[in-house]
Design brief:
The complex is a heterotrimer of chains A (264), B (286) and C (184). With 264 residues, chain A is mainly alpha-helical. Helices cover 70% and strands 3% of the residues of chain A. Chain A folds into two domains: 15-131 and 239-263, no CATH class; 153-224, no CATH class. Chain A is built from ten helices and two strands. In chain A, a hairpin with a 2-residue loop joins strand 1 and strand 2. A six-stranded mixed sheet of chain B has the order 6-7-8-3-9-10, with helices on both faces. Chain B is globular, with a radius of gyration of 21 Å. The chains are: A mainly alpha (264), B alpha/beta (286), C mainly alpha (184).
Amino acid sequence: MRTLPTGQYIQGDSILHKLEARVKILCLFILSAAVIGASSIVGYALALGTISALILLSRLPISCAFASVRRISLFLLVILMMNALFFAGENTMASWWIFHISREGIKQGFSVVINVILILILGNLLTMTTSPTQVTTALESLIKPLKLIGVPTEDVAMIISVAIQFIPTLIEETESIKKAQIARGARFESKRLAERAASFIPLVVPIFISAFRRADELSLAMEARGYRNAKNRTRRKKEPLALDDYTALTVCALICLLQFMLLR
Amino acid sequence: MSITIENLSYSYVQPSGEKVDALKNVSYSIEDGDFVGIMGHTGCGKTTLIQLMAGLLSPTSGHIYLNGEDINAKGYDRTSLRQTVGVVFQYPEYQLFATTVEKDVAFGLKYSGLNRQDVSARVQWALETMGFDFEKVRSQSPLALSGGEKRRVAIAGVLATKPKILFFDEPIAGLDPYCRQRFLQFVTQMNQSGTTIIMVSHNMEALGECTKRLLVLENGKLIDAGATSEVFVRVKHMSNGGFGQTEAQKIVELLSAGNLQLSSAIVTYDDLLSALRQELTGGGMG
Amino acid sequence: MSKMSYVKRSIITAVCIGLSVVLPMAFHSIPNAGNIFCPMHIPVLLCGLICGGSFGLLCGLAGPLLSTLITGMPPMAYLPSMLVELAVYGVVCGLMINLVRTKKLYTDLYISLIVALIAGRIVAGAAKAVIFSAGSYSIAAWIASYFVTSWPGLVIQLALIPAIVGALMKAKLIPQRYSAQYEA
């Protein structure tokens, strides 16, 4: 029985690991705003400094934080090029047909790329120090306010936790079906599009059939036990926030404030 | 078609970082036309062994020889491997997908190089071997059939390539007694017509009835191998136990508690009946 | 398709969310399957078609989110635009399948799918231009990424999804849309 892949989560006991997941998510948003609000060298230095401090606090190897940046390096290059080559600003340095190279364009290109990288690293810090279960539990409580506009948040939470529980089973079944069809001689390569499309049917159809069959069984079992919606379920007691959590929130808010003051 | 496995090991790393040794240094030889059973507790590596032998997994170390050729060697013809080796997984009906029974069964023959007529003939043969009326069933949707019919269609799909070796992973799981009996008859017939059969099962009766030889796996290691009746007897005395006995063996045990000693080599009902007959007609070794 | 109970639709949505995470993993090992195929789109489109717009929306949001958290794919940088695209797929599929009733199952499906796929791309492209990559996104780039390079993926989705729906109906796992019997 395979266990759930933990994605980018790396176990540890640093301060960042110990913070409450909800706090970390909020801080992620606050600091992302701070990053986007950076508009001068000082601003960027502040953002960079904050993030370096966080990486140190997490006691995680630096290479981890940058691994996903490397993966999208091509995408970042494209953004840089699109801004550098197509943006017509006041200080146009060269112009030909649809290509315009200007100081603004190049600056913009770099600033967008740096923003993306910094926010990406922030996001990685979150996922590397928080297990997927913790993140989803945190998200559940964070979306509670949506109840006010009629979103059935308990049902949403139930659906997501059922989804997570299904994943190991789905992985096993998918592997099993894949092997069975390969054993029958299925092939998934082909140059012609129509053939390629058709070659996935023996894989995809059985996967959905078996997944839906499990859904059928589970929903019947739930209905048989009187379940209709998640409103009246018993819930686990929430743990109060610790001092570290409040400190973290305050520091992040201050940094963001500083950033916006620098904007003027 | 013979298979020889030599020092076969398979390990993998779980996403949590834990290393799992699914198979440790297993070696065995299966001759052409043999009927070998594989038994062991859940998680002992039976399914991994089958997948390795069928070329669906690459071993961490060790070799698998099909008719003397290493199936994991570079340049080994994988397409013909798929045609020669047939694997029926547990609950094979889950692999059905096509719009008609005929198309689903014909799926395995896509790369066989046969022309349309031959494919049609093979599909008909496979379905009829599994007890279907070809004309009635050919254009039905396989997904709308009953559970037992689905399983037979799935097996027909594997048979269609006329494999020389057939692997079965828990083939009678979930079948009612009548279907179970028909399946065991079918698989014995296949073996008698020359197909090498390797069957994983928990069911002692099924193993006792059909298999000639048994492999016993525990925690990835091969702990016993040999003729079926001999292995059954030895397995009963293993300290871990829990392998169960055939009904006939249980009756022998009960009778010996009641002071009627019968041979410990009795495994199936047929053995038991002939032993009892000998006893009842007075004297003779039983 | 809307005759199923709330509970059943909820659990089907859960399974579709799970598949949004699992399918890309399964296709990862098949060369050239993941990048043109967008395996994550299929469960979302199906969820919208089978369970309706609100469940489709949930699937379109939760699927990629969980997938990024659990498997790291898609990378966080692509997440926002994927969330928008898939959310629109889920909602529009649900809307369209309830509006379009041509009495032919496959026609309904194709129309709903095509409208959803186009709408999703339009909205995601707009979001990218306005919010995510402000300033650097032009119509040319949008057409290029959403239509030219991923059009094989579009074709594959259009081919696979009706096949899956047909199979699910034959297996009686979801109710028939029209009471007359269909040849698959």
